[in-house]
Amino acid sequence: MTIGRVVVYVLAAMLAGVTIGLLKSWPAPEPAGQDVAGPAVASISVKPPATPQAPSSGPAPSSTSEAAPASTPASAAPSSAQQAVRRPGPGPELPPGAPVRAWGEGWWRTVPGTTEQVGTGRVHTYAVEVEQGAVLPAADRVFAETVDAALADRRGWTAGGGVAFRRVDLEEPDVRIRLTATETARAVCGFELPYDTSCYVKGIVYVSTPRWFRGAESFGGDLEAYRRYVVNHEIGHHLGHRHEFCPADGAQAPVMMQQTFSVSNDRLADITAATPQGPKVPRDGKTCKANPWPHPEVTR
Ligand SMILES: [Zn+2]
């Protein structure tokens, strides 16, 4: 009787132990070190691109990158960005539009085609490239034609004299202009300022596809103008130009102004306060008109 009761107690205790053990292990514990910030599905369904091959030493963007180098701490960026969001008027947010693929394969195919030299002076050869998997093939021709048109325009960099361009495909170019998937561009250009943007890093222009397909609020719905702006602005970095600001209220924005974020000096100052993008933006209340051209004053 006593022994039987002890056996019952022992069995009951064992059963309780097993039950508690089961409860503890349900639901299944998260694997240690999982990135809680991202959706779990991303780690199995999306293949990150191979590290984009910025030539030579490491992925750190040069100082001419649109956003801060990846090594810069985010610090107060979100709060200043939120501050900027509250201001009226066009801002740095990506306009709505067609879905854009997040990832490409991390390598770029050359769009075939060459051009005659445009302009006189030092010739900069360029190649037009598209990240594999980032866009549908039909986008290649439009991208290439837009780049060609932006660089050949009479209001472009060649108008200043001393600069010429010629597109190459098989030849090794001086500069590559690459249509680049969202996440690849974020990895290369930085995403401390939480806005998609294009950049120039060590002889390569990375054009972010969400901006290519949706433009920027500053340009309203004028996607063609915005696309020409992006090409001219980033090639401006290749030519050695730094960022500029709105010189006079109501004037044409300099092509080297970060018009993707804003054409208002005050707003640009807010957006870039925590992650400077070159020379300090003056808070002088000046707001310009969006402009894609290095030399908008040229008429004929
Ligand atoms: Zn820039």
Q: What do the pLDDT scores average to?
A: 79
How many whole angstroms does the radius of gyration measure? Answer: 26 Å
Backbone shape: globular
Terminal Cα separation, in Å?
112 Å
Hetero groups in this structure are:
zinc ion
- Treating each run of at least 4 consecutive H or I residues as one helix, how many helices? 8
Strands, count: 7
CATH class descriptor of the domain at 109-272: Alpha Beta
Q: Mind telling me which CATH architecture of the domain at 109-272 this is?
A: 3-Layer(aba) Sandwich
- CATH fold-type name of the domain at 109-272: Collagenase (Catalytic Domain)
| Class per helix and strand makeup | alpha/beta
Helix content: 25-40%
**Proportion of beta-strand residues:** 5-15%
Largest sheet entry: 7 strands, mixed
State the order of secondary-structure elements, H for helix, E for strand: HHHEEEHEEHEEHHH
- Which runs of at least 5 residues are low in confidence (pLDDT < 50)? 10-85
Oligomer: single chain
Topology, please?
Layout: H1 2-24, H2 42-45, H3 77-85, E1 108-110, E2 118-119, E3 121-131, H4 138-152, E4 162-167, E5 175-180, H5 182-189, E6 199-201, E7 204-208, H6 209-214, H7 223-238, H8 265-272
Parallel strand pairs: 3-4, 3-5, 5-7
Antiparallel strand pairs: 1-3, 2-4, 6-7
This protein binds zinc ion.
Zinc ion binds at residues 64, 66, 233, 237, 243, 258.
What would you say this structure looks like, in words?
β3, α4 and β4 (162-167) form a beta-alpha-beta unit. This protein has a domain at 109-272: Collagenase (Catalytic Domain) (3-Layer(aba) Sandwich), CATH 3.40.390. It is 30% helix and 12% strand. α4 (138-152) crosses α7. By secondary structure, the protein is an alpha/beta fold. The chain is built from 8 helices and 7 strands; from the N terminus they run αααβββαββαββααα. The protein has helices at 2-24, 42-45, 77-85, 138-152, 182-189, 209-214, 223-238, 265-272, and strands at 108-110, 118-119, 121-131, 162-167, 175-180, 199-201, 204-208. Strands 1, 2, 3, 4, 5, 6 and 7 form a 7-stranded mixed beta sheet that branches. Residues 64, 66, 233, 237, 243, 258 line the site of zinc ion (ZN). GO terms for molecular function: metallopeptidase activity. Keywords: Membrane, Transmembrane, Transmembrane helix.
